[in-house]
C-alpha cells in the first residue's frame, strides 16, 4: 500500500531539526548532500510544518525546497560551496512567523529567507524584511496585497499572485458559458466563499473584479474563518441564491467541511472552482471524497508533471524529471501537489539564478548582492519546471518584486489526477457542467 | 422574508444541531470544573485524542465503527484519570494560574504528540449519512444523529448524577467542597471519578465530531475556544447552564450568519458574551 503525504519519520526529523534550530545556532536541516569545500552558504527556509497550514500544502512546499537544495549541492553548489538551510517552522501562526524571522535575521544573521507559505504571514513579514534590508524570497504566499503599491526593494516573489487566479477561473466560465452551459456569460450566476485572511480576501476581490469586468452577476460573496466548526448556514444561503458556479478559496479543514455540509445541505451547482492551497492537495481530497469531486476545478501554478517537458527550454525537462523522480521516491504520492513543484522550482530559481551569480560577482552573500542579482534575472517562457519565465518588476513598479512572467493555470480533477484546462491554448477540453451523476450537479 | 421562510427555518435547525456539537464538551468541562475546581484547558485536545482513537481503530485496525466508538469512551476516560493523577492532583493546592498553565501545557503536549504520531495530515473517517429533506429544508443526517446522541449522553449523565450514590456525592462535592469530607465523602476518589466521567464525555464528543470534522492535531481550535466561552456564559461549573448556553450560542451563530454574514455572526456571539459578562458575570444560568 502506498503511503501518502509526509511520513511520520520525516516529520519527526523536521521537528527535531526545528528544535535544534531553536536552540543551536546555524543547524543546517535541509542540506543533505556532502559539501565539496568552502564555507557553506546559509539561507533560511521558513514554512509551516505544524498547524493547519502544514496539511494544506506547506509540508510539500518544504519537501520540494529540500530536494532543490540537495540537488543543487550535489551539482557542486556555488563553485564548491554548498548551501546550508536553516529551517524554521512558523506553526501556522503569524506571531510565530514574526518571531522566527527575528531569530533567523538576528540570532542566525541570515541575509535571505526563502519559503513563506501563507499570505497572512507574508504581509507582516515583508515590511520587517524591507526595514531590515534583508531578502525575503516568497515561494508560495500569493496575495497581491503582499506587494501591491509597497515598492519593496528586498522582497521577491517568483510565483503567481492572487489576481491571476481569478483571471483564470472566471475566464474559464466566461469562455465556455455559451458553448457548454448554453447561457450567455452575463446570465451565469457566480458565488464566492473564502477564508478571511489576505489569501482568501485577495483572490475573492479579484474574482469580484473579473466578474464585474465581464458583467457576470456575483450573487454571494462571503468570508469565513478557516477554523470555523460549521458552514451549514453559509450552505443554506448559497442554496437560497442558486449560483451556477461556486468559487471557494480555502485551506483544508474548511474545504472538507464545506464539501460535506454542502452535500448534506443539498447544495448543487454547475461547477466548483478551488484556488490552490487545500484544493491543490489532490491526493487527500480524492482519498476523502473520491469520485464526488470528479471534474471539480482548481487554479494554481502548474505542477511540473502536468506540462509537456519537451516543450520547455533545453535542459529544463531533465531537471523536472529529476525532481519528480526524487520527490516521488522519497514521498510516494500518486500525484505531486503543485506546492511540491512550487517549493522546488522557486527555490531552484533562487539558487541557480540569484545566489550563484551574486556570490560569483561579489565573492560573498549579502542581501544587496542578492537583490541586484534578482533584478538581473531574465528567464524566458518555458525556462522553469513550472513553465513560466522569470523577470521581476523593478522597485518603481506598483508590483515591485513580483515575477511578471509567472503563469497560473486552471486544472480539472479526473480520476485522482489534475489536468490543465486553461489557458485553452495549452489545456485540454474542460468537462462543464458537472455531469448529472455527480452528487453536487445541478438538477436541470 | 417571513418566519416560515424555509431557509430561515433551516438556519434555526442548523443552530440547534450546532448547539448539540458544543453541548457535550461544555457539559464535561463544567462537570470537572464544578467538582475539582480546575479548568482543563486541554479539554478540546482530549476530544482530539478520542477522534484519533476512533479513526485509527476503524480505518487502520479495521474495527467496526460501533466498536471503535465503544472503545473511544474508556480510552479518553483513562486519559482524563491520568490527567488528574499526573497533572491536576499535584497542583490542587496551587494558585489557579498554575493549574491553568499546567493544563495549558498539556494542550501543547497533546498537539505535539499527535503531530509526531499521526503527522499533520487531515484524516477522514469517510462516514456520512444521507440528509433528510422536508420540503425545502435539508437536515444533515449525520448532525441529527450526533445531536440525538448528545441528548442521550446528557440524559444518562443526569440520571447518573441524580440517582446513584456516587452521583449524589459528586453533586455534593460540587456544592460544598469543604464540608463533604466531614460527612465521610472521600474527595480524592470523587475527583478521580469526575475526571473519568469528564474524560468519557470528551470521548463521546469525539465520537460525534469525528463524523463531522476531519481529524488533525489542531482540530481542537475549531471548537475549543467557543466551548470555554459557552461554559463561562452558562456559569462555570454549572452543567445545566453550560448545556443550555451551548444551544443559545449555536442559534446566535446560525441565525446571525443567516441574517448577516458568517463572520458577523461570531461578532454578534462574542458581543453577546461580553454583554453577559457585564450584566451577569456569574453566568446566565447561575443560581
UniProtKB/TrEMBL annotation, chain A:
Superkingdom of the organism of origin: Bacteria
Residues in Leucine-binding protein domain copies: 40-379
Single GO molecular function: ATP binding
Pfam family, one: Peripla_BP_6
Keyword Nucleotide-binding: yes
InterPro entries, per database record: Leu-bd, Peripla_BP_I, TAT_signal
Keywords noted in UniProt: ATP-binding, Nucleotide-binding, Signal
Listed transmembrane segments: none
Gene3D superfamilies per record: 3.40.50.2300
Protein name: ABC transporter ATP-binding protein
Organism, as annotated: Roseicella aquatilis
Amino acid at each position: 500500500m502506498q503511503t501518502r503525504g509526509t511520513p511520520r519519520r520525516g516529520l519527526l526529523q523536521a521537528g527535531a531539526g526545528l528544535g535544534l534550530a531553536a536552540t543551536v545556532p546555524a543547524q543546517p536541516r535541509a542540506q543533505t548532500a556532502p559539501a565539496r569545500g568552502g564555507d557553506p552558504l546559509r539561507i533560511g527556509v521558513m514554512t509551516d510544518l505544524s498547524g493547519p497550514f502544514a496539511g494544506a500544502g506547506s509540508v510539500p512546499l518544504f519537501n520540494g525546497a529540500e530536494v532543490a537544495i540537495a540537488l543543487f549541492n550535489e551539482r557542486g553548489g556555488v563553485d564548491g560551496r554548498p548551501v546550508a538551510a536553516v529551517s524554521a517552522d512558523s506553526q501556522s501562526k503569524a506571531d510565530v512567523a514574526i518571531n522566527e524571522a527575528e531569530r533567523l535575521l538576528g540570532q542566525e544573521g541570515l541575509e535571505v529567507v526563502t519559503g513563506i507559505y501563507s499570505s497572512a504571514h507574508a504581509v507582516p513579514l515583508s515590511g520587517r524584511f524591507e526595514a531590515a534590508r534583508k531578502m525575503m524570497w516568497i515561494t508560495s504566499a500569493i496575495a497581491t496585497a503582499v506587494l501591491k503599491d509597497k515598492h519593496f526593494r528586498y522582497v521577491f516573489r517568483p510565483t503567481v499572485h492572487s489576481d491571476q487566479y481569478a483571471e483564470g477561473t472566471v475566464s474559464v466560465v466566461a469562455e465556455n458559458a455559451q458553448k457548454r452551459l448554453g447561457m450567455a456569460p452575463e446570465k451565469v450566476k457566480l458565488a464566492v466563499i473564502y477564508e478571511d485572511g489576505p489569501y482568501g480576501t485577495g483572490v475573492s476581490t479579484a474574482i469580484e473584479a473579473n466578474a464585474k469586468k465581464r458583467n457576470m452577476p456575483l450573487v454571494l460573496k462571503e468570508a469565513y474563518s478557516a477554523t470555523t466548526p460549521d458552514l451549514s448556514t453559509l450552505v443554506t444561503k448559497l442554496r437560497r441564491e442558486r449560483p451556477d458556479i461556486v468559487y471557494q478559496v480555502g485551506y483544508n479543514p474548511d474545504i472538507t467541511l464545506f464539501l460535506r455540509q454542502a452535500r448534506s445541505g443539498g447544495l448543487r451547482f454547475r461547477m466548483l472552482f478551488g484556488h490552490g492551497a487545500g484544493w491543490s492537495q489532490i491526493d487527500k481530497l480524492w482519498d476523502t471524497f473520491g469520485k464526488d469531486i470528479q471534474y471539480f476545478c482548481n487554479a494554481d501554478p502548474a505542477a511540473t508533471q502536468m506540462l509537456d517537458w519537451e516543450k520547455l527550454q533545453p535542459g529544463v525537462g531533465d531537471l523536472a524529471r529529476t525532481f519528480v523522480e526524487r520527490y516521488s521516491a522519497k514521498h510516494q504520492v500518486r500525484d505531486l501537489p503543485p506546492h511540491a513543484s512550487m517549493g522546488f522550482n522557486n527555490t531552484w530559481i533562487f539558487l541557480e539564478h540569484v545566489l550563484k551569480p551574486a556570490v560569483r560577482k561579489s565573492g560573498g552573500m549579502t542581501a544587496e548582492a542578492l537583490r541586484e542579482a534578482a533584478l538581473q534575472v531574465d528567464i524566458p517562457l518555458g525556462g522553469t519546471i513550472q513553465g513560466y519565465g522569470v523577470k521581476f518588476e523593478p522597485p518603481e513598479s506598483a508590483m515591485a518584486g513580483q515575477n511578471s512572467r509567472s503563469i497560473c493555470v486552471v486544472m480539472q480533477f479526473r480520476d485522482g489526477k489534475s489536468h490543465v484546462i486553461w489557458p485553452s491554448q495549452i489545456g485540454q477540453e474542460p468537462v462543464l457542467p458537472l455531469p448529472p451523476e455527480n452528487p453536487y450537479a445541478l438538477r436541470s | 422574508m417571513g418566519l416560515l421562510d424555509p431557509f430561515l427555518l433551516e438556519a434555526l435547525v442548523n443552530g440547534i444541531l450546532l448547539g448539540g456539537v458544543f453541548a457535550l464538551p461544555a457539559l464535561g468541562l463544567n462537570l470537572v470544573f464544578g467538582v475539582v475546581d480546575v479548568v482543563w484547558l486541554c479539554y478540546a485536545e482530549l476530544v482530539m485524542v478520542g477522534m484519533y482513537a476512533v479513526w485509527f481503530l476503524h480505518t487502520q485496525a479495521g474495527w467496526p465503527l460501533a466498536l471503535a466508538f465503544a472503545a473511544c469512551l474508556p480510552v479518553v476516560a483513562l486519559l482524563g484519570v491520568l490527567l488528574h493523577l499526573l497533572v491536576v492532583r499535584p497542583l490542587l493546592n496551587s494558585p489557579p494560574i498554575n493549574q491553568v498553565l499546567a493544563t495549558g501545557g498539556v494542550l501543547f503536549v497533546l498537539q505535539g504528540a499527535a503531530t509526531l504520531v499521526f503527522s499533520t495530515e487531515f484524516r477522514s473517517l469517510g462516514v456520512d449519512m444521507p440528509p433528510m429533506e422536508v420540503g425545502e429544508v435539508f437536515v444533515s443526517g449525520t448532525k441529527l444523529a450526533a445531536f440525538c446522541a448528545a441528548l442521550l449522553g446528557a440524559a444518562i449523565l443526569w440520571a447518573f448524577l441524580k440517582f446513584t450514590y456516587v452521583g449524589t456525592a459528586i453533586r455534593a462535592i460540587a456544592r460544598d467542597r469543604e464540608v463533604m469530607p466531614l460527612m465521610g465523602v472521600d474527595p480524592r476518589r470523587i475527583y478521580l471519578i469526575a475526571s473519568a466521567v469528564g474524560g468519557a464525555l470528551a470521548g463521546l464528543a469525539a465520537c460525534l465530531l469525528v463524523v463531522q470534522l476531519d481529524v488533525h492535531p489542531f482540530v481542537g481550535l475549531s471548537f475549543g475556544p467557543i466551548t470555554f466561552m459557552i461554559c463561562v456564559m452558562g456559569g462555570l461549573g454549572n452543567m445545566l447552564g453550560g448545556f443550555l448556553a451551548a444551544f443559545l450560542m449555536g442559534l446566535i451563530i446560525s441565525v446571525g450568519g443567516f441574517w448577516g454574514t458568517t463572520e458577523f455572526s461570531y461578532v454578534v456571539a462574542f458581543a453577546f458574551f461580553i454583554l453577559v459578562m457585564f450584566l451577569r458575570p456569574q453566568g446566565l444560568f447561575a443560581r
